[in-house]
């Protein structure tokens, strides 16, 4: 896959609201700072971040690609959970881009062709002075990488461990997204959603979108009774 043939330079499934301003950093402020500066002349060439599902890995990778695009740079987001069943040809010639963000790395670990392709892609990006951002569910040391050279490469650069958000962080993230959407979300309503709704942030944000549409349609403010009726809780 040549970079000049890409119809969507940002990659597969990049949400336009997955930006840094919409991410509540909590204890991950240092990581967000590094990601914002990765394309600077003194930015970190390779950043590896890992954490459990719902820790914000995908949001941050997509945010990095969106910010790169806004700066006039070419970036590509590759979610291997969706693309890993294909041959690794998509990794060819990526050194023509400014930033490559690879998500769900664990999906292709243990597959020789993919590991070799990742190793060579890593080297080409490094030699071309490009930026690489990788996310996975576990640290580089605990990934069952079979190719020793790739295992060595994954240990380069900076590594960050993302923690699952606690209830306070979930609450702040919910209110931040509501503010971005122009919604007035009272604290009592946000806490009600937090305690009655799903625990995963992605599902919480989906509910928030439903409530936004429902409140606009009904011309009603968000209250606990309205949320109960709208979501049938």
Oligomerization status of the protein chains? single chain
What is the assigned CATH homologous superfamily of the largest domain? P-loop containing nucleotide triphosphate hydrolases
- Name of the CATH architecture of the largest domain: 3-Layer(aba) Sandwich
What's the number of helices? 9
Q: State which percent range the strand residues make up.
A: 5-15%
**Rg over C-alpha atoms, rounded to the nearest angstrom:** 19 Å
Main structural class: alpha/beta
Layout: helices, strands, pairs:
Elements: H1 29-36, E1 46-50, H2 57-70, E2 75-79, H3 80-83, E3 99-103, H4 112-127, E4 131-136, H5 148-154, E5 158-161, H6 167-180, H7 187-196, H8 201-218, H9 224-231
Parallel strand pairs: 1-4, 1-5, 2-3, 3-4
Helix pairs in contact: 6-7, 6-8, 8-9
Domain Hda lid: 167-231
Protein name: DnaA regulatory inactivator Hda
Domain Chromosomal replication initiator protein DnaA ATPAse: 20-159
Give a short synopsis of this structure.
The chain has 233 residues and is α/β, with parallel strands linked by helices.
Q: What this model shows, in words?
A:
- Pfam families: Bac_DnaA, Hda_lid.
- InterPro entries: DnaA_dom, Hda, Hda_lid, P-loop_NTPase.
- This is DnaA regulatory inactivator Hda.
- It comes from Kushneria aurantia.
- There is one protein chain.
- The chain contains nine helices and five strands, in the order H-E-H-E-H-E-H-E-H-E-H-H-H-H.
- By secondary structure, the protein is an alpha/beta fold.
- The protein has two domains: 159 residues, Rossmann fold; 65 residues, Helicase, Ruva Protein, domain 3 (Orthogonal Bundle), CATH 1.10.8.
- The chain has a five-stranded parallel beta sheet with strand order 2-3-4-1-5, sandwiched between helices.
- Helix 3 links the parallel strand 2 and strand 3.
- The chain is elongated, with a radius of gyration of 19 Å.
């Amino acid at each position: 896959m040549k970079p000049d043939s890409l119809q969507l330079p940002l990659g597969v499934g990049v949400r336009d609201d997955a930006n840094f301003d919409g991410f509540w950093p909590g204890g991950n402020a240092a990581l967000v700072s590094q990601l914002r500066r990765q394309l600077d002349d003194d930015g970190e060439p390779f950043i590896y971040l890992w954490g459990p599902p719902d820790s914000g890995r995908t949001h941050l990778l997509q945010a990095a690609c969106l910010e790169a695009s806004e700066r006039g740079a070419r970036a590509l987001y590759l979610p291997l959970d969706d693309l890993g069943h294909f041959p690794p040809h998509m990794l060819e010639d990526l050194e023509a881009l400014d930033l490559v963000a690879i998500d769900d790395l664990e999906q292709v670990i243990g597959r020789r062709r993919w590991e070799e392709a990742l190793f060579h892609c890593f080297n080409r990006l490094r030699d071309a002075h490009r930026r690489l951002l990788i996310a996975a569910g576990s640290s580089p040391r605990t990934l069952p990488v079979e190719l020793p050279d790739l295992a060595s490469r994954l240990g380069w650069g900076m590594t960050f461990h993302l923690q699952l958000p606690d209830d306070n962080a979930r609450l702040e993230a919910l209110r931040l997204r509501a503010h971005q959407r122009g919604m007035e979300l009272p604290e009592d309503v946000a806490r009600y959603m937090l305690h009655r709704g799903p625990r995963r942030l992605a599902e919480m944000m989906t509910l928030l979108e439903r409530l936004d549409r429902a409140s606009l349609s009904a011309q009603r403010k968000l209250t606990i009774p309205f949320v109960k009726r709208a979501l049938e809780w």
